[in-house]
Design a protein that fits this description.
This protein is mainly alpha-helical. 81% of the residues lie in helices and 0% in strands. It has eight helices and no strands. Helix 3 runs antiparallel to helix 4 (73-100) and helix 4 packs antiparallel against helix 6 (107-128). The two termini are 29 Å apart.
């Protein structure tokens, strides 16, 4: 994931923002499982793997807005709040039928949906709190590694 993001952002430090958001978002379902007293199993790990894509996507949306538009973190968060909220909301609403029917379908579906729900919720919270905090604390994370002038000079 890191190499793909580094090539997309043309930076070695910008991919750290989405990468850091993954374990922070995955902490939410782990804590939720600890609260209800259930152990993580293969279905919950499937849910975490599926949710990792959305976690990275939410962070990429915010980082792209900041780097491409050269706007402040606050402005980028305001501009992208509706797409982020809609993506998260529709995914959670799409999980509701599975959550309601999980007792009749089986424990595999319950664990999958439960981990997905909490990981996506954690991703939404991390996108609005930790990522802006990280970018405000370390503003050089989003700088380009090579400027266009340096690449031209090498030729």
């Amino acid at each position: 994931i890191y190499a793909l993001l580094a090539s997309q952002f043309e930076s070695l430090t910008s991919p750290l923002v989405p990468i850091i958001s993954i374990p922070l978002s995955i902490a939410f379902p782990i804590i939720a499982y600890a609260i209800i007293g259930r152990a993580l199993n293969i279905a919950s790990f499937f849910g975490l793997i599926i949710a990792t894509g959305m976690v990275v996507n939410n962070a990429i949306i915010l980082v792209n807005e900041i780097t491409n538009s050269n706007v402040s973190v606050r402005h980028a968060l305001r501009k992208r709040s509706v797409p982020l909220a809609l993506t998260t909301g529709t995914t959670i609403v799409g999980l509701l039928p599975l959550a309601i029917l999980s007792n009749s379908i089986g424990p595999f579906v319950f664990d999958l949906v439960y981990s997905l729900f909490w990981a996506i919720t954690g991703s939404f919270i991390m996108t609005y709190t930790c990522i802006p905090g990280l970018l405000l604390t370390f503003p050089n994370l989003l700088r380009k590694t090579f400027s266009e002038a340096e690449v031209v000079d090498e030729k």
